[in-house]
Structure formats: C-alpha cells, structure tokens
Amino acid sequence: MATNRPDTLDPALLRPGRLDRKVEIPLPNDQARLEILKIHAGPITKHGEIDYEAVVKLSEGFNGADLRNVARKRGVLAIRAEREYVLDEDFMKAVRKVSENKKLESKLDYKPV
C-alpha cells in the first residue's frame, strides 16, 4: 500500500500487525528534481533552450508525480497553442499551474471515513 495522504487512511489499517513496515521517502532535492524533469522532458520536441534550473527553482516541494504532471501540462499548453513543440514558457506556465493546484489541494480538509 502506498499513499501521499496518510491522514486519509482508515485507522484500522494502521493498527499493529497490519503493515509490515512504514517507509517514508523524502521529497527530491534540486538535483533529483532536475533529473526527474529531464527524464519526463526527453521524448518531447523542444524549440529553443529550456531553462531547467528555473523550473527546478519554481518546483520546490514537488514530488515525482508533480513533476510528471508539469511535463504533461506543458504538452497540453503547446497543443492548445497549435504547436508541435514546447517552449520554455510552456514549462514555466505548467509549473505555476501545478503549484496552484497543489496549494488548492492542501486547503482541502480530508477526514478519514
């Protein structure tokens, strides 16, 4: 079982004897986020130089799934602009959009059922 929201788990699942071990994986640092971004950016056609360092700075607190979401959103932005390639500005807009969504998500009050 894996989750990014342990507060939403049923308390019965967390009783002793239910799970063998609890493994916490910290958020990636700047270098790790850069590598993750480059992996997800690889198969996409790019036009011009992409400032990955700026994207990494804007993505503080993002996990791997968030960075994958940035990669998908930048592709959607290029498609909406009727382009077959992504620009640096697509990355910047995508990371801001994902950041806004994360802020909204953190405001939701999840309660275990």
Concise synopsis of the structure shown:
The chain has about 110 residues and is mainly alpha-helical. It has 4 helices and no strands.
| Secondary-structure element string | HHHH
Strand content: under 5%
What general form does the structure show? elongated
List the uncertain runs.
none
Number of strands: 0
The CATH level-2 architecture is identified as Orthogonal Bundle
- Average pLDDT score: 83
Q: How many separate domains?
A: 1
CATH class: Mainly Alpha
Task: Report the span from N to C terminus.
Answer: 18 Å
CATH topology category name: Helicase, Ruva Protein, domain 3
Alpha-carbon Rg, integer = 17 Å
Major pleated sheet: none
Helical segment tally?
Answer: 4
Keywords: ATP-binding, Nucleotide-binding
Protein name: PSMC6
Domain AAA ATPase AAA+ lid: 50-92
Organism: Lepeophtheirus salmonis
